[in-house]
C-alpha cells in the first residue's frame, strides 16, 4: 500500500499547477476589462469572450485548489464526533423567526402609478429586468448541486425552503415590473445557463458560495436601480427586495461563522483573496449583462464596482468579527469553574 508521504510531491505539483491556472485566469479577466470599457462593439465582444475564458480558467484553478486542500484535510484523523448526526449550520429557531417577521409589513408596489422613466431608458432597463426575473427565482429556485442533500440534512431543509420562497417572491415582483414597462418574461439566457451548470457540477459548497456572491452583487444592482430610476413602483419593489437580500446575506454570514467556530473553515487572507476575486467575477458577469440598463438610468461602472467592493469588504469584516465573538463565547462556556475565585 502506498503511503501518504509518497504522495506529497505529486500533490504539491498539482497544487502549483492549480495555482498557476488560477493566476492566468485572473490575469485574463483583468485584461478583459480594457476591452469591455471600449466604445467599439467588437472590442466589447472580445472583452466578454476573454472574461468568460479567464473566469473558466480561474474557476478551474479554484476548484483544483479546493480539492488539493480537501486531500490534505482528509489525511488528518477523523474525530469521533463526526459520527454523530449533523447539526444545522445555524440557529434554526432564530432564522425561522426572522423569516416569519419578514413576511409582515410588505406593501405591494403601485404598479398602476404613472411611469416616470424616460422613454429611451425603458427598453434597455426592461431587458435587464427580464434577465433578473429569470435568475431571481424564475428558474430552478432551489439548490441544484449534485450533492445538495448533504447540506439539506435535518432542519436545514426548512430554512432553505424559506430562503428560496423569498427568491420566488422576488421573481413575482420582477415579473410585475417587466409587465409594467411592456416587457415579457423570458424562459432562458446564456448567462443563466452557465450559472446553473456551474452550480450543478461543482458541488453544494461551491454553489452556496456562488449564491452568496450573487446576493451581494444583486444588492448593489437593486440599490443603484432604486437610487437612479426615480420610478415609484420600481423604488418600492427594490426596497422590498433589498430588505430580503440583507437577511439572506446575514444568513450566509451566520452559516460561515458557525463553520469557523467548530473548526470546519478558516477565513484568512487566502480565503479573502479568493472570495474577493470570485465576487468581482460575479460582479463583472452582472455588469456585462446589465450595464446598458443601469447606464440608461444614470448609474456608472465606477459607481457599481465601488459599491461591490464596499459590500465585499463589509461582509468579510463582519464575518471575522462574528467568528471572533462566537469563539470567545464558546471559550468562556468551556472554562472550568474554579472555586477559589468565588471564595468570599
Description:
With 344 residues, the chain is mainly α. It has two domains: 1-76; 89-334, Ribonucleotide Reductase, subunit A (Orthogonal Bundle), CATH 1.10.620. It contains ten helices and no strands. The protein has helices at 8-36, 41-74, 92-101, 119-138, 156-180, 190-201, 204-229, 232-261, 269-296, 301-334. α2 runs antiparallel to α9 and α8 packs parallel to α10. The longest helix is centred in the N-terminal third of the chain and has 34 residues, at 41-74. It is globular and about 65 Å long.
CATH topology of the largest domain: Ribonucleotide Reductase, subunit A
| Structural class assignment | mainly alpha
Helix proportion: over 70%
Number of domains: 2
* Element-level helix/strand string: HHHHHHHHHH
Radius of gyration, whole Å: 23 Å
Overall shape: globular
CATH class of the largest domain: Mainly Alpha
Residue ranges: pLDDT <50 for 5 or more in a row? 1-11, 67-85
Arithmetic mean of pLDDT: 78
How are the secondary structure elements laid out?
Elements: H1 8-36, H2 41-74, H3 92-101, H4 119-138, H5 156-180, H6 190-201, H7 204-229, H8 232-261, H9 269-296, H10 301-334
Helix pairs in contact: 1-2, 2-9, 3-5, 4-5, 4-9, 5-8, 7-8, 7-9, 7-10, 8-10, 9-10
Features:
0% strand, 344 residues, Ribonucleotide Reductase, subunit A, disordered N terminus, mainly alpha
Summarize this structure briefly.
By secondary structure, the protein is mainly α.
